[in-house]
Amino acid sequence: MRNRSIAFFLLATLFTPNWSYAYPIPPRSLRQLYIDSELVVVADVKKTEAGDREDDWSSGKATLQISSCLKGKTKNKSIVVYYAAGVFCPAPARYETGETVLAFLKSREKGGGYRTYALSYGAKALTKSELGFYLARIKELKNILVIKEEGERLKETTAWLVKCAENEATRQEGLLDLDGPSRYYSTKEKKPEPKFLKYLNEDQKNRLVAILESAKPGKDGMPYDILTVMSILSKTTEDEELLRIVERYRKIDWKDKKKEEKQKTLIADFVMKCKDLPNKAIDSDKK
Length: 287
Prior knowledge:
Layout: H1 6-15, H2 30-36, E1 39-50, E2 60-71, E3 78-83, E4 100-107, E5 114-116, E6 123-125, H3 128-145, H4 150-166, H5 171-178, H6 202-213, H7 224-234, H8 240-250, H9 259-276, H10 278-282
Parallel strand pairs: 3-5
Antiparallel strand pairs: 1-2, 1-4, 2-3, 4-5, 4-6
Helix pairs in contact: 3-4, 4-5, 4-6, 5-7, 6-7, 7-8, 8-9
């Protein structure tokens, strides 16, 4: 569940059909979604309607017109995807008529059709520009995943994650894996997620620092992603000052009227410290 208040969370748990529904699932990155999905498509949502009345997780039904199949095979250009129309938490996939979606799907065990993998993370409603970035990254990911030598594959994946992080559209997709591993383990790989952070090289760390330098505040201050970038970079060094800056940034009260000013100051301090300690903070290839 993203950016929901505690009150809303409690309401959601009260009105969901089963208490087990009231727990958000760990985030899934683009890499994880692609690996574990059976079918990955770009499609237009043609219509939505009531689905299976006997199954809360299939209470909605969306008809998707496929424009591009990125993984897997299907004989039909039009497919039906079932989703939880009445569940609030964990957030289910949402489909709105007229939207273009990047959908990560699996076949339903009973009743035919598909379900969205990883709930809300597996159905991305994107603008034309955003979709272009996602398609480019998925094309690159396909080529990386077939690399047989594990060390080389991990290095190439790390470079790819940084590339994802550099664009706002796919930033979270890259940061999720760089900041991991999360509680989630890829079911396809059947082993713990690798720690990509240790494969970051000098150039890639500098590119992450550049994200901080170009950060711009929104209506609620700096994007939360900026804290994640700072956290990732601080983990590549044992420098206590960098760690203290991250902790001070983390503790800024979101209601603080001077929040944006404080965030900017700490980001500037963090960047300066990184550049003052290149051997530790930026040039390090700590394993």
